Amino acid sequence: MSSPDAGLPSSGWNDPSLAPTETDESSDSSLDQLDLETLADDDTTSDGEGANQGLFDDLLSGEPIFENKEVLRPSYTPHELPHRSDQINRIATILVAALRGETPSNILIYGKTGTGKTASAKFVSQELERTSEKYEVPCLVEYINCEVTDTQYRVLAQLANTFIEENRTLVDGQLDQLETLRERAREEPAMLGDTPFDDIDGIGTYATRLEERRDELEEVPMTGWPTDRVYTTFFEAVDFQERVVVIMLDEIDKLVEKSGDDTLYNLSRMNSELSNSRVSIMGISNDLKFTDMLDPRVKSSLGEEEIVFPPYDANQLRDILEHRANDAFKSDALSPEVIPLCAAFAAQEHGDARRALDLLRTAGELSEREGLDRVSESHVRKAQDKIELDRVVEVVRTLPTQSKLVLYAIILLERHGVHNVNTGEVYNIYKRLCEEIDADVLTQRRVTDLISELDMLGIVNAVVVSKGRYGRTKEISISVPIEETEVVLNSDSRLGDIEDIHPFVQSRFDS
Ligand SMILES: Nc1ncnc2c1ncn2[C@@H]1O[C@H](COP(=O)(O)OP(=O)(O)OP(=O)(O)O)[C@@H](O)[C@H]1O
Ligand SMILES: [Mg+2]
To answer: What domains sit in the chain, N to C, each tagged with a CATH number?
Structure first.
């Protein structure tokens, strides 16, 4: 949760226009503003086709805020990354070995979310591939997002298939060259003296062998093979040709969490067995402690070089936003205080550039919906509330059922005017809710753990208070907007079955 300190405003949860359930269309006023009567009066638009064209023409020309909104989206790759030149240079200094035909050290990149790790690593790899083409040094970078590709099988299969594809293209290129050579040799047989071929038939035999090799390259299916077969296929595909391969494993902690460190173990010891190619690994993680989960050998091999991406401060975020805003917004669309405020909010969120860009884009969209041609400070504040609320809704929606029941119990108590409740009170209501929907009842100790988890997620606030000689107890209060949270809880099919628990809760406190 963002904290409302440092002179920044607290969130205004009760603004109904920010409710996340509202769709973009329902609040889009631009259609309402079209003067339909004028359109109807106009002779040229009285037929259906003309009217439609006018409708969209008007909407298109009425685009006063954004020049190119895509520039603010996470998928956009910026050409410049201000305040990351140190990190980019360090990665480049290590990877330059690949251009000399040597094996670069393995690299581990760490840093909190939104600190530019993925953007910087992708930038360096694009430059590396570009330069390798320029100097004709065979060097490849393969990117894998381990949040999506999260098992050893999938990682190896994806890599194997990418290399097989590359290898096929390579062989096709060689076959084309052989064909050209064969045609030239037909006209001028003597030129074969400069080649390894004695005669035209020799070229043909070699080409046939290449074709056979190409046809043997079998792609790995997405499931079904034993892992060692996938590994062997991947190994052969990498070693098909002399080259240096950099394997970029983004969100590497997700892979280790889901499937252990076997993949990393296998990848990191490959070089001793490869005869033509060399492999280097670049791991990226925002979990600083994930290497604790690794076998010590894997840990030391993977962390040959470690590069840390520190959080951005407000000034740096301001520079980043200014660079992107130049391309994203029409000139004069931003009031002067907009970028500094977005930067200040995001700096509070541990210096997250993604958050800063989201804020700026959402602020622009909110002002666009109001039909204005300028983004102002108030739009940034509303954007901050909207993003925060969206986050809460998402967190609550994806809670396990038991945690939802605990949260529901806290909300019911709060709704009945019981603030700063203790664990015992929550537990009593929780048990009753479990009975209502036939759910297993956990022990009070487990429920206490679930409350601590909700606290860590920023959904409730649990403080330990001393009750003098009665010992210590936890006081729990809810720290998210109750109404919206209740809507999300009720949308869960199991919790939606709870009927009218209110009289029960009421009677419990009346007695
Ligand atoms: N120095 C920078 N200049 C311009 N844009 C940046 C910079 N740093 C980050 N960004 C932008 O911020 C967003 C988040 O950056 P990126 O995806 O690289 O973060 P990350 O460190 O990989 O975060 P995570 O750990 O969550 O994956 C992207 O849209 C990226 O383009
Ligand atoms: Mg990333």
So the answer is: 16-67+313-393 (1.10.8.60), 85-309 (3.40.50.300), 399-510 (1.10.10.10)
